[in-house]
Amino acid sequence: MSALNTDFYELTMAAGYFMAGMSSEIATFELSVRRLPETRNFLIAAGLAQAVEYLQNLRFREEEIEYLRPLPQFRNTRFEFFDFLQDLRFTGDLFAVPEGTPVFPNEPIAIIRAPLIEAQLVETYLLSTFAFQTSVASKAARCVIAAEGRPVVEFGSRRAHSPSAGIFAGRAAFIGGCSGTSNTEAGLLFAIPLFGTAAHSWTMAFGSEEKAFRCLQELLGERTVFLIDTYDTLEGARLAARMGRPQWGVRLDSGDLVSLSRQVRRILDDAGLRDAKIFATNDLDEQRIAELLRNGACLDAFGVGTQLATSGDAPAVGAVYKLVEMRQNGGVQFTAKFSADKPTLPGAKQIYRYPDRDVLGLYSECNRDFQGEPLVRPVLLKNELLEPLPSIEASQARAKSSIAALPGRLRSLEQSEPYPVEISSTLERLTDALRREKTT
Amino acid sequence: MSALNTDFYELTMAAGYFMAGMSSEIATFELSVRRLPETRNFLIAAGLAQAVEYLQNLRFREEEIEYLRPLPQFRNTRFEFFDFLQDLRFTGDLFAVPEGTPVFPNEPIAIIRAPLIEAQLVETYLLSTFAFQTSVASKAARCVIAAEGRPVVEFGSRRAHSPSAGIFAGRAAFIGGCSGTSNTEAGLLFAIPLFGTAAHSWTMAFGSEEKAFRCLQELLGERTVFLIDTYDTLEGARLAARMGRPQWGVRLDSGDLVSLSRQVRRILDDAGLRDAKIFATNDLDEQRIAELLRNGACLDAFGVGTQLATSGDAPAVGAVYKLVEMRQNGGVQFTAKFSADKPTLPGAKQIYRYPDRDVLGLYSECNRDFQGEPLVRPVLLKNELLEPLPSIEASQARAKSSIAALPGRLRSLEQSEPYPVEISSTLERLTDALRREKTT
What we know:
Strand order of the largest sheet of chain A: 13-12-1-5-3-17-18
Oligomer: homodimer
Shape of chain A: elongated
Number of domains of chain A: 2
Largest sheet of chain A: 7 strands, antiparallel
CATH superfamily of the largest domain in chain A: nicotinate phosphoribosyltransferase
Radius of gyration of chain A: 25 Å
Strand content of chain A: 15-25%
Helix content of chain A: 25-40%
Number of helices of chain A: 16
Distance between the termini of chain A: 44 Å
CATH class of the largest domain in chain A: Alpha Beta
Structural class of chain A: alpha/beta
CATH architecture of the largest domain in chain A: Alpha-Beta Barrel
């Protein structure tokens, strides 16, 4: 976690604000998603815990400043800027929706209010943290919906975008409803249940499938999952059946999972192993899980890897971090961007959630003027945590109950009519006035 | 970089191998890609430097072992296993193609030969490291091809899958041919040129576009890039033109880039700024760049963000890590998987590159029997680096010259007839013999 893990223009802007004497102006930025991917009817906010950890530990190390100092872009920057960087800490406020909250386009997932340079510098890290975990949590929620009560485990670390991404994919997938992860470091860091038993290489290394199965059973007892498709799936199933108890069951990782799972079920049942389960992996996602179950596959649990850890059908949500307010000399200047295809709404905003819609109002409007539940809460004030963050289990529970409370059509795997996000009349008037001022 | 950043089954298998007395058997695993994404005619290998760093520093920390010890999956594991983990270092060999080398399906990007437990444990980290950087380097190469000589800069950190992914995206994009990155930490770690000047928030924070432009020019001089679309693009262009020299030029980030770039070009030319350049961003990728140039856009450089840092159209390549040999008591046992849809080839392999095709032979075959250039080289022997790794500039140069040497059709942005990867007659005979042995 380095303060240099940021887009370079954050640092050139920081130098420029410093040179222009704007260091102490207070800026408010909102982090939100511009639009939903076609294959998402909602997003599940995640990443707040890592954002807090980053903000609370933000600082430039000596060698980082020495790297920046001679760069040609800072040739006209006074040397006091580097002293300023040396002492820089995050001193501002963070407001956010709790992790596990469903969110929609243009709704603030997080709001940063801080001295301009601080608020600007943290943009890149916060965007990648919130956007990635939110993508994965949302994908996980869909897989869990598709599995209709069967456990879904996140298995995608090997396909994640760098080893660190695998850790956060495991965390976000758990918030989205997964039962656990294969990423051992995520297990340690976040106390998430770990899953995994053996790979094909296990069977190959022993030479004999039977010896491989016996050794696994001795090791794992009732947690044993026999991976039966290294050579011939049905032969593997017969061998697993002969192993008898204890075993959890078997895993299928190739072939026609509908037909194979039914044949394997029969083999296990015929051997009296009616309580042995069948676990499926192999390029699964929510659509594939739904299709398997629709076609009568006998499957008890799913491992989802690549598609979950990379949010494969929507590998990026268009998260943005936009300046919405500047405070100087006691006054507030609302700001917005009115470029052709990417306009933004001015002012720090609150989300009010009603049973069938959200309303975006200005954060400064009075909560009592709205019936809906306000979702954005203060998290850090002057970089002090107001209260401990919820546990990851609480975030998972929040996601589960909030998804259940959404209009039913949003829980379809198909694209549904969008959830309405309305704008308060005060916010609408402000936006119109500002557009007139800036574009005419 | 933690030894626990691995799939949990690597650790249960490690315990099982330890219990079965197989710790000292020497295993050989190959890391390769099963098939190319539809939108890739070749991949550019990347990630080797991080793989080496990981292998050379692999060790379990005390608290990591204490986390594992009480897990129920290790209930039947002798406590000596944890002493073994405590002392575990990577002691094996790594063979790999140099970074920047074009590779094709089933070709070994890396080969690990090590005591079985070590070789197994490193699977997850190596897969995510090689697969992600290889994806991004390959995507970068396509963007650079599309830009026809104009610079392409990697700008995607904010959309990368976690902040760390942004660093490695910057690195891999540079190997693939990008001129630099916006990721400042990648600049520090890998000595990659940094790009970036200012965001829309810069213009909004100053309130006045003119003041914002003037301050940027004072800061950056001839490196100034005016972002002209915060409010009205053509007004922004006229203002940039009035700023005169020094300036590099302007950036367009929204709207119809063909029409706007032509109008902006005229405004700059009319002001006598014929050498001012136009930089384009806004959800670009190789197809979009090619389309813009085909349609006559006046653009001099491109910033590619989301699609590059997430390899958006192919966010995962199906990289696999398969056991190909076991050595015990002086003999070699070749291994392969023959499951229905995901078979593998046995034996450690060498890639021989001919002008128009590759041939995969066994690594143990004699190089002199092949005319093609052998691409896989020893990198670590007993975890000692044979020679310093090439510089990142050398890897970029290797990618550039190797791509130029490929058959021309592979440099198309459209899917081309696949590059032939043949199999030596020795490898073919071995595969057939092993299939008969294992499946009948």
